[in-house]
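Posting for a labmate who doesn't have an account.
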Amino acid sequence: MYLDYNTFRLEDKSYYIKSNQEERIYYINDGIISSLTKENNRYSYQINENIIQLNIENFTITDYDIKGKEEFEIDLRQVAEMSVILQGAKQLLNI
């Protein structure tokens, strides 16, 4: 996990979190950046221009906005992992 965005961009399969009040974590894999944001008791997962709203309790998809491809797969394990790291970082960084 990185706290510096520029260093995060140089790595692969790494996480970035800002040390501010925003509950958002970023992940980079093969140059593609995704983010998970906790807002209004739900998660918002964004990858490229695609946004998926998820139930915070069980990660079921509650809404989505998919741009481009008609077929789109999302690995919810990555979302769950980002959620756990976000919660740990939140406690560690006191955000």
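Reply:
Got it, the structure tokens are right above this. The radius of gyration is 13 Å.
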